[in-house]
Amino acid sequence: MPTYLSDIIDVYIVREHAHSPRCEFLQMRRGESPLRSTWQPLMGHIEADETAIAAALREMQEEVGLRAGDAALHELLALEQVHPFFLAELDAIVFSPRFVALVDSDWEPTLNDEHDAHRWVAPETIDSSFMWPGQRAACAEILSILTPGNISREHLRISLG
């Protein structure tokens, strides 16, 4: 019987443009294995003494230089959908909590050595830019949450104070 794990988080960093419905998703190119040379959202492992939220905040600081108190970080939201996926090499089903960090329209990441490049992806290119079906589903959920008048946004917001 497979093992069930919850030790990986995803953070989708999204730039919202003021007075415009336009937004962009950050992707970073992995510089090392696994997934070397693939474009991914921010991903990381939950450490033994951490909550998923604490891991998301730590990984944002480590991988892109974004801290909870930074003025460029407008909101952190928990996505409702937790993504399950199977890792054959571990014979494990992983449940990955997901988050979206909304940042200033001119914010740029400071990448650590895990990544060798970054790019901003427009919503209309999600299907060709994100390699995993679960990532594309997360982007669709984010776009739904960001739709004006969506009543779930306030309930998904994580306090950063």
Roughly how many Å is the radius of gyration? Answer: 15 Å
Count helical runs. 4
Which spans of ≥5 residues are poorly predicted at pLDDT below 50? none
Determine the mean pLDDT: 91
Shape: globular
Percent strand equals: 25-35%
Largest sheet: 7 strands, mixed
Helix-residue proportion = 10-25%
Number of strands: 10
Order of helices and strands: EEEEEHEEEEEHHH
Q: Would you mind describing this structure in some detail?
A:
By secondary structure, this protein is of the alpha+beta class. The protein contains 4 helices and 10 strands, in the order E-E-E-E-E-H-E-E-E-E-E-H-H-H. The strands form 2 sheets. Strands 2, 3, 4, 5, 6, 9 and 10 form a 7-stranded mixed β-sheet that branches. A hairpin with a 6-residue loop joins strand 2 (8-16) and strand 3. The model has no long low-confidence stretch (mean pLDDT 91).
